[in-house]
Design goal:
mainly beta, five-stranded antiparallel sheet, 44% strand, globular, binds calcium ion
Amino acid sequence: MSITRGALPSWTRGQWVAGALGWIALSGCGGRDEPILPPMPPALNVGDSNQQCVVDSDCERSDLCAPQVCVSTVCVSTRVACDDADPCTEDRCDSSTGSCLYDPVTIDADGDGHRRPLPGFAPGAAGACGDDCNDSSAAAFPGGIELCDGIDNDCDGIIDVGSSFEPTGAPALLLSSGARQGTPGGLTFSDSAGTYGAVFTRRIASSQNSFTSIQPGQQALGPVLAVPEVNNDTFAGPIVGRDSVFATAWEDRRDDDYEIYFNRLNTRGEKLGPDVRITNAPGFSLRPSLLELPSARGREYRLVWEDERDGAGGRIYGQRLSGDGALVAGNLPLTPEGVDPSSPVLVAGQQRLGLLFNQAAPTGRGLGFMSFDRDLSAATDPVILSAENPDGATMVSNAGRFVVAWHVVQANSLPGPQIFGTVLSETGDVVVDAKALTKPAQFARYHSLLPLGDRLLLLWSEWRSDKYEIYSRELSPELVPLGDERRITQSDLDAYAPLATFGPSGEIGILFTGQSPDSTQPQAFFTRLTCDPGAQSPAPR
Ligand SMILES: [Ca+2]
Ligand SMILES: [Ca+2]
Ligand SMILES: [Ca+2]
Ligand SMILES: [Ca+2]
C-alpha cells in the first residue's frame, strides 16, 4: 500500500496523525510527488481493540485462539470456536497452535480401552460417557470373558458366575505377632500392586493403629508399620482402595479427646501426606466408616462417624474429601437429633449412598437407614428396619439394592443363635423382609457379606460345642440360602468376626479375630478362600 501526500491534510515531520488508513508518519523529506510508505506502527497493546492498524500483523496475535485482525483500521478480536457437539468431550483451543482439542470428560485409568462413566451414571447408559463397570481393573470391561477372579469381567453385574469359594486348609497367618492383643480394622486388595493391605490395632504399651501388606499365597507379610504420627491410643478403622492408593480412617486420642483422623497410603503402607484431622469438636468422635468413590478423572472419599458434639446421644456426622485427601466443606450432621445413633456404615449404591446405623427403638435398639446423594445431601427420611437389639450390622450394595445383615444381642447380653438380614431399595423401601440367614447355633455373631450380583457370600462366626469358628454360605439376592454352610477355619481356639474382601485370581481374603495358644488375648489373623470355577451354585432350597 502506498499513500501520497495528496491524501493528507497537513505535513509535520515526525508527527503521527491518524489518517483514514491508519497511523502513518509525516515527513518533510523527499519530493512532494514521492509516495510516502507507512512505517511500522508502534507496539500495540494486547487486548486494546481500539488500537488502530493497517494490516492484521499490526494487531495482537500471540494467542492463536483469539487472534486480532485489522478491520477498517481497528484491531478486532476474533475467537476460534471449538465445538464438536459431543457432550462427552471438553472442548478447548490450544493458544500456541490455534487448533481445537477435544478432551474426553472421563478417563480410562486401567487402559482396557473402556472409559469409566460419569459419576451418577450406570456404565454404558446414555450420557454416561463411559461403559467400564470397573475402571480399576483391565480384566473387567463389556465383552470380557467371565473368569474366576473376584471381578465382574463382562460387566453384566455378576461376579464369577457358577464358581464356589473353598478354604485352602492352610494355617491362618498371625498379623499381630508380638503384641499383647490384636484387633482387625479393615482389609482391602490392590489390583495394581497385587497385595492386600490390612489395618489392625496392636496393643503393646498403648493401642496402635497398624498397617501390614499381605502377599497373595498368604505366607509373606510386609513390615508392620504404625499408621498415625503420634504414639497415643489409636484404633484401626476401615481401609479402602483397589489400585495404587489405599485410604484409612481411625479413632485417635492425640488431642485428649477421641477424634477422627484420615490418611492415604501407598500399597507398601507409606503415608502420602500428614495425618488429616477430620473432627475438632467437643465429645468423642468414634467408629468411622469410609468410602472411595470414583470421579470422572480420579477418586474422592466420603467418611461418616459417631459424634457426641450435639449431646443427647449424639448424631452421625459425615465429611467429603477430595482424592488428595483435602477436606471439602465442613463436617455435616447426617442423622436427626434424639435417635442415639451408633456404628454407622456408609455404602455406595448405583444411584445413592446408603447409611445404616444402630439407633434407639421402642423395644430397645434397632437399625436406622437413610440414603443421600453423592455429596451427602438430599437425604431421605430415616426409616427404622425390623431388627430387634441388633449388633455388628453391615450393609453391601448388590444388584441395585442394599443388603443389610446383623446378629442379635439377647436380654442376658449373649449373642442370639442366628445371623439375620433384609434387603432394601436404594431409597429405603423394604424389598425382602427381615429373615434368618443361618441355621440356629448356640451363638452366632459378627459376619461379612460379599456381593456377587446374582448371589451373595455370607461369612459369619458361630459357637458349636466349645468354640467359635467361621463359616460361609451363599445366598440368593432375595436371601434364600444356596446350599449348606461350609466351615472355613479349623482353629484350636476361637476364630470369629470375619472381614472379607476380594483378592487376586478368585481368592477371597479374610481378616479375623482369633486366639493363639501362646496368648490369652485375641489376635488378628488372615486366611483366604480360593475360587473353584468348576463348581456350580446349588439351586435354592
Ligand atoms: Ca477402563
Ligand atoms: Ca476395566
Ligand atoms: Ca460378570
Ligand atoms: Ca470374574
